[in-house]
Amino acid sequence: MENKSAVATFALILVLVILALTIIKIFNISYPVNITTSERSNELSVIGEGKVEAIPDQATVEVGITVKNAETAKAAQQEIAR
Questions:
Q1: Which UniProt keywords apply (predicted)?
Q2: How are the residues of the chain apportioned to helix, strand and coil, as percentages rounded to the nearest 5?
């Protein structure tokens, strides 16, 4: 008699658990989970990609003068000054 009672109790608990899980799934019941760690990090990693298309409003032009075959720096300066 006790064996039938234990089986009936187990079956009832199993049915209730299955019913509870089904209700949770159907109604999408959820609860918040807080995850904490004991390690602290001072890093922040971000990975991304971007593209910008625009007409530039500023231009940089670099110009230089080259003097060849000058025997001294003073001669090169005089050649440039002409």
A1: Membrane, Transmembrane, Transmembrane helix
A2: 40, 0, 60
